[in-house]
Amino acid sequence: MDRRNALKSLLTFLPLGTAFAGLTAMGIRFITPVKREFERKIFTVGLDELPINASRRFKDLRGKDLMVVRTGEREVKALSTVCTHLGCTVFWQEDKKEFYCPCHHGRFDKDGKVVAGPPPKPLDSYKVEIEGDNVYVYFKDIKEV
Fold first, then answer.
1. Burial letters 48-76, b for 16+ CB under 10 A, else e
2. Is the pLDDT of residue 144 over 70?
3. Contact between 135 and 42 (Cβ < 8 Å)
4. Same domain as 97, residue 47
């Protein structure tokens, strides 16, 4: 085969190879959809239903437990109830104004930061917004696009 025929063959099959690669990529993307994370704003409780230093338990969109705690006149925190040490359930202690894990005596302040005990990191927190007298918590959710 001379150079001219080799070049013709290459120029003939190059577009076909490119088209095949494109179709293959489109097929893979169709089979495995893209997942995007977005936030949902969910009503949890009214301020009149939650006295200062009181707490209320909820579940997020994935079924994980969380606690909404009113720490001031217009200050509300939303934190996970799962201890970062070994996954035990933490409780809000109104009198001490802190979260307590009974498994290994871990303690967290009102912001979820470790105060004492073996937990290696703070409690997971959720973004909170107060509109009027309604408390909304932002949950991260995954949507396939």
1. eebeebebbebebeeeeebbbbbbeeeeb
2. no
3. no
4. yes
Residues 99 and 51 in one domain: yes
- Is 73 found in the same domain as 27? no
pLDDT bucket at 143, cuts 50 / 70 / 90? low
pLDDT given at position 58: 84
Q: What is the CATH number of the domain that holds 93?
A: 2.102.10.10
| pLDDT tens, position by position, 33-85 | 677 777 888 888 888 888 888 888 888 777 778 889 888 888 988 988 888 88
**Which string of DSSP letters, residue by residue, matches the chain?**
--HHHHHHHHHHHHHHHHHHHHHHHHHHHHHS--EEEEEEEEEEEEGGGS-TT-EEEEE-TTS-EEEEEEEETTEEEEEESB-TTT-PBPEEETTTTEEEETTTTEEE-TTS-EEESS--SPPPEEEEEEETTEEEEEEEEEEE-
